[in-house]
Amino acid sequence: MIEVKNLTKRYGSNVALDHVSFSVEEGTILGFLGPNGAGKSTTMNIITGYLSASEGEVTVAGHSILDEPAEVKKLIGYLPEMPPLYMDMTVKEYLDFMYDLKKVKIPKEKHIKEICNLVKINDVYKRLIANLSKGYKQRVGIAQALLGNPPVLILDEPTVGLDPKQIIEIRNLIKNLGRNHTVVLSSHILPEVQAVCERILVINKGVIVADGTPDKLSHDLSSDHRLIARIEGPEHEVLQNLRSVKNVIELQSFGEKEPGVCEYSIEGAPGKDLRRDLFACCTRCGMPLLALKSSDLSLEDVFLRLTSDSYIPKSIQHPAVIPSESSEVKEGGDEA
Amino acid sequence: MTAIWRRELRSYYYSPIAYVFMGVVLFLFGVYDFQVVMTGSSYYIGQVYGIMFTWCMLFLPALTMKTLSEDRKNKTDQALITAPVSVTAIVWGKFLSAFTVYLITLAITLIPAFIIGAFSDPTWSHIFGNFVASLLYGAAIIAIGVFISSLTESQIVALVGTVGVSILLMLIDSFGSMLDNTFFQTVVSWISFQARYTPFTNGIFNISSVVFFVSVVAVFNFLTARRLESRRWS
Fold first, then answer.
1. CB-neighbour burial class of residue B124 (10 A; exposed 0-12, middle 13-18, buried 19+)
2. Long-range CB contact pairs, A214-221, < 8 A, 24+
3. Which residues, 6+ apart, have CB-to-CB distance to A51 below 8 Å?
4. Sheet of A226-232: strands edge to edge?
5. How many domains does chain B have?
6. Tens digit of pLDDT at every position of chain A (336 positions)
7. Which residues of B touch A147 (CB under 8 A)?
8. Distance separating alpha carbons of residues B5 and B34, to the nearest angstrom
9. By CA distance, what is B11's nearest residue in A?
């Protein structure tokens, strides 16, 4: 449905997007994840035609945004980071205006009523937008994006400013919309993406660093290289011995969990299985190993790791995480 | 385009801008109309519209200052530009809404003429000539104002900038006569609004002036559209 090829955006000498490529299948909910300033909004602004790319190409349902902007814009409902609301209008006037602006063909009154029911803004329908709370403004922004039932929805941080109850409502709404729409949503809130999206794209400093389902991402990155172990013996001695194990890069004690037994988190170099070496070390030093399990990284850890400065996306490290199409991206990641 | 035109027009009348503009312009018109036509017992309406030229040139920037700068500041331009309408349609919608407020204001200035017309026989061609000429230079300065508004996020900058251009356009004739350079004087006579407008107050309907003002509108609306387009590339 959406095809993004080698998208690059430069602001002067500053590179906001660096050869970003991905595609979104019809009917999927794609989560766009990244810290502030990673290039999420820029990508969305380019897909919707608000900004133009310095290089690269975007096509939506086969139409190029450069050659047929009007066609593409008809297919997309867009909620920008800051909802584009006219403060001097009532909700009704605003939705009427957006309906006309988008040249929607569906019967007007019925269509607007349906959308108001969907995002629950009926009770503020006749109020001035300037007087609405942040949450309601956000919902009016979502309503505006839904006008005309566009097959593609692009939502830039759709739940910002909502209270927890509203967040759940909007998430459910987006999930429902995902059944017959293609949705791209951006967020820097992980649980949100985890709860709503079928596929996650992690972007950092203008480069895609990971692509996959939430489960796949956390599984691929955790594997066997981070272990939780319970080892009997004096804490500082055990730590000292563990440091001698090959490939250990990070060691942390969680303190005494049973009498004389401490719990440790042992992290090895990515892709290295530590279990055998660890076992050998414990036997050699006479420290009874009482428990050993691999710890799955939470998505939060994955995110922090992917977006940290030291992370270099190399397909050798995590072959499953980096899709083949973005293999050229990894060079860009080195400078990031 | 009509959606944008209607929205902008509504926003003029929901805010005090349109009322203040119309109030001030019509008050001044009333004062001069009274002085010239009533106390002066003159039928020469051109004199009234002639004075109003200066005032309108100064007040019209108040109508155009927010047209595009406000959208940019409030990010509502994202809704306009990502909607399936062309930038040209956006610009013309904005231009026409400000022009409509001006048109309504000017239309009201015809009321005294109609009242007089009920009791006597004024020279209608003279009155409408002045009316059309006022519309023309008004449209031109509105197009320039919309363009300046597209250059900035600040309404104040747009206002001051457009007023500055208005004043420059009014003073440019005296610049021409100050310098004894025929080339410079020719250039000034090309740009001068005053020189194009004055024949109308004398009852001469000058086609080349009509073409001039219409061209100014077309050129500046084109430039504004290019400006909106170029912002996407910056």
1. exposed
2. A214/A299, A216/A320, A216/A321, A217/A299, A217/A302, A217/A321, A218/A296, A218/A297, A218/A298, A218/A299, A218/A301, A218/A302, A219/A296, A220/A318, A220/A320, A220/A321, A221/A297, A221/A301, A221/A302, A221/A305, A221/A306, A221/A318, A221/A321
3. A9, A42, A45, B232
4. A248-258, A261-268, A226-232, A289-294
5. 1
6. 899 999 999 988 888 898 999 999 898 999 988 888 888 999 999 999 999 999 999 999 999 998 998 999 999 999 999 999 999 999 999 999 999 999 999 999 999 999 999 888 999 999 999 999 888 999 999 999 999 999 999 999 988 878 888 888 888 888 888 888 999 999 877 778 888 888 988 888 888 888 888 777 766 655 556 788 899 888 888 888 888 888 888 888 888 888 889 888 888 777 777 888 888 888 988 889 898 887 665 666 667 767 776 555 544 344 344 443 333 433 333 433
7. none
8. 35
9. A88
Domain with B207 in it: 2-232
The region, left, alpha or beta by phi > 0 then psi within -120 to 50, assigned to residue B198 is alpha
Residues sharing a CB contact under 8 Å with residue A19, sequence separation 6 or more, in sequence order:
A6, A7, A8, A55, A56, A207, A328, A329, A332
Question: How many angstroms separate the CA atoms of A69 and A74, rounded?
Answer: 9
Minimum-distance CB partner of A88 among B14, B81, B83: B14
Which residue pairs, CB below 8 angstroms and at least 24 apart, start in B215-219? B216/B140, B216/B143, B216/B144, B217/B95, B217/B139, B217/B140, B217/B142, B217/B143, B219/B143
Joined together, the tokens standing for residue B191 give 């740009």
* Disruptive mutation site among A8, A50, A104, A152 for chain B (greatest number of B CBs within 10 Å): A50
Burial class (CB in 10 A: 0-12, 13-18, 19+), B115: exposed
d(CA A58, CA A309): 29
Q: Which of A61, A64, A63 is nearest to A53 (CA)?
A: A64
CA–CA separation, B172 vs B188, rounded Å? 6
Residue B200, both tokens: 């109308």
Contact A93 B10 (CB under 8 A): yes
Question: What amino acid is encoded at A273 in this protein?
Answer: D
The pTM assigned to this predicted structure is 0.81
| Residue listed under structure tokens 């007040």 | B59
What is the Cα–Cα distance from B201 to B44, expressed in whole angstroms?
Answer: 9
Residue B86 touches chain A, beta carbons under 8 Å: yes
